[in-house]
Design goal:
about 220 residues; mainly alpha; 6 helices; globular
Length: about 220
């Protein structure tokens, strides 16, 4: 019986049959090469992670300010009036304490003959405390004074929905005093203004919204 003849060096007796596809190399199919990172840019920054779905417990995002808040998100007249009364009451108490400390008399009530005995010096502590109080609190991350917090409202930029910068919060507070001069006409203006803005809201380009629609940040924490 004839023996199998050895084949040439480097070959085997079990050659691939014609038409049979060669086997793939180890490690699976080759992956296409990734583009090299740009100059001065790490490779990890070229491919940002894909957006992930919100977690089940996440709260939905508030309505965007670009299209304007819905009317039901804007604070109403009485809610703002009660918040302002609480704030002014607190400011008055602090201003009276400061005035008493420095010997400044409070404004006198109307005299017996019907005239008004108004002392400009007595309003100084009130105006200073008012300016400092509202400027600071309305420029915080919450955009709330103490009265605003109790009534569930906050003051925000009308364009971007963030807290006011200190300069605009100061202008808004200063203008609120002018809004009160003609029988509080500047405050009543919000009753027929489409976005429920007072005169000082229009000057500072601000809106007063309800916190149920736009949850505030940390109370009394500076935003910047």
């Amino acid at each position: 019986m004839a023996e199998d003849q050895p084949g040439p060096s480097g070959s085997s007796n079990h050659d691939d049959q014609p038409g049979q596809r060669p086997t793939e190399p180890l490690g699976g199919p080759a992956q296409p090469p990734e583009p090299p990172p740009g100059y001065g840019q790490p490779a990890s920054d070229l491919w940002p992670p894909a957006p992930t779905a919100p977690l089940p417990g996440d709260q939905p995002a508030p309505p965007a300010f670009a299209a304007g808040p819905p009317r039901e998100a804007l604070a109403g007249f009485w809610r703002r009036a009660v918040a302002a009364f609480l704030d002014w009451l607190l400011v008055g108490i602090v201003a009276a304490a400061i005035g008493d400390l420095f010997g400044v008399e409070a404004p006198s009530p109307p005299s017996a003959d019907g005239g008004v005995n108004f002392q400009l010096a007595g309003t100084g502590p009130f105006i200073l405390v008012e300016l400092a109080y509202f400027t600071y609190f309305h420029a915080t991350s919450a955009g709330q004074s103490i009265g605003n917090r109790i009534l569930g409202i906050r003051v925000l930029d009308a364009d971007i929905g963030r807290s006011l910068p200190y300069a605009r919060a100061f202008v808004r507070t200063l203008m609120s005093n002018l809004s009160a001069l003609p029988c509080f006409l500047g405050f009543f203006w919000m009753l027929w203004e489409p976005r429920r803005r007072t005169w000082h809201d229009m000057v500072a380009n601000s809106l007063v919204v309800r916190t149920t629609f736009y949850p505030p940040g940390e109370f009394a924490r500076p935003a910047r």
